[in-house]
């Protein structure tokens, strides 16, 4: 099978040819140019689709088709599933029909070659599904990457805000002294390296349900964080002092794997928090 894509304004038309039979699909709704298909099936420069659309058999079939489509997909009442378009370039004009109507029209035009039409449509549908799956995967990767970048920017802002706080003399109210939590998670393990993520959050206005979820799904949940821990700087310095080859990227850090690594990291953070408490 050979396929080509042609643009007309913002609309793309995909033309697939197999054994001399041509199928043109409109990208906006995946409707098929039935006129073009019938002319290649019958080897005639006229489709005679008007004769089909006036026939009793078509009317009965099409009315039932509309009824089933509208009941199953909540389509707007009285919507049509085929249309004639004479505004496209000459070789793209004709009747465009819903893809589920193609087989009926192909059998009407040429029972002999209708099987080939079915094969072409199956291939088009498979390719369309594969493209949709690829698009979904790429979109998901993009969203994940954007979310990660947002979290990193939030961590930068949190660090900057903490650094500014440290420079400004202030009185800390008792109810604010233990208003923060620190969450530790393992986000990646590649080869001999493990990457951790730290998130410092204010729990003053946090709902109990969210707080419990964070406790449940974290590698370690540090509550009642000292207000002096206004950035990750203190913990970063403690990790550097206790581990070799530690690398940082905003609120993430990567360490070489070793036995009991997670427990060792947790203990270093606990010791640093207790030191600051004192």
Automatic annotation (TrEMBL):
Taxonomic lineage: Eukaryota, Metamonada, Preaxostyla, Oxymonadida, Streblomastigidae
Highest taxon of the lineage: Eukaryota
Protein name, per record: KilA-N domain-containing protein
Stored SMART domains: KilA-N (SM01252)
Record-annotated KilA-N domain positions: 12-124
Pfam family, one: KilA-N
């Amino acid at each position: 099978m050979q396929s080509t894509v042609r643009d007309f304004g913002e609309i793309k038309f995909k033309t697939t040819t197999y054994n001399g039979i041509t199928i043109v699909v409109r990208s906006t709704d995946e409707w098929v140019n039935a006129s073009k298909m019938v002319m290649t099936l019958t080897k005639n420069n006229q489709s005679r689709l008007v004769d089909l659309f006036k026939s009793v058999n078509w009317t009965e079939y099409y009315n039932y088709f509309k009824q089933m489509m509208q009941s199953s997909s909540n389509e707007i009442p009285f919507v049509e599933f085929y249309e004639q378009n004479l505004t496209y370039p000459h070789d793209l004009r004709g009747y465009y029909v819903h893809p589920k109507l193609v087989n009926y029209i192909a059998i009407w035009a040429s029972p002999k070659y209708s099987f080939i039409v079915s094969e072409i449509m199956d291939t088009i549908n498979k390719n369309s599904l594969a493209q949709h799956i690829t698009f979904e995967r790429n979109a998901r990767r993009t969203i994940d990457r954007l979310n990660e970048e947002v979290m990193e920017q939030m961590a930068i802002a949190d660090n900057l805000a903490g650094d500014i706080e440290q420079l400004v003399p202030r009185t800390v109210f008792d109810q604010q002294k233990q208003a923060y939590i620190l969450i530790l998670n393992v986000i990646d393990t590649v080869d001999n390296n493990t990457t951790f993520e730290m998130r410092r959050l204010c729990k003053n206005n946090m709902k109990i349900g969210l707080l419990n979820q964070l406790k449940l799904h974290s590698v370690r949940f540090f509550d009642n964080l000292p207000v002096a821990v206004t950035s990750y700087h203190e913990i970063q310095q403690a990790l550097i002092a206790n581990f070799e080859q530690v690398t940082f990227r905003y609120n993430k850090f990567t360490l070489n794997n070793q036995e009991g690594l997670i427990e060792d990291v947790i203990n270093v953070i606990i010791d640093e928090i207790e030191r600051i408490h004192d």
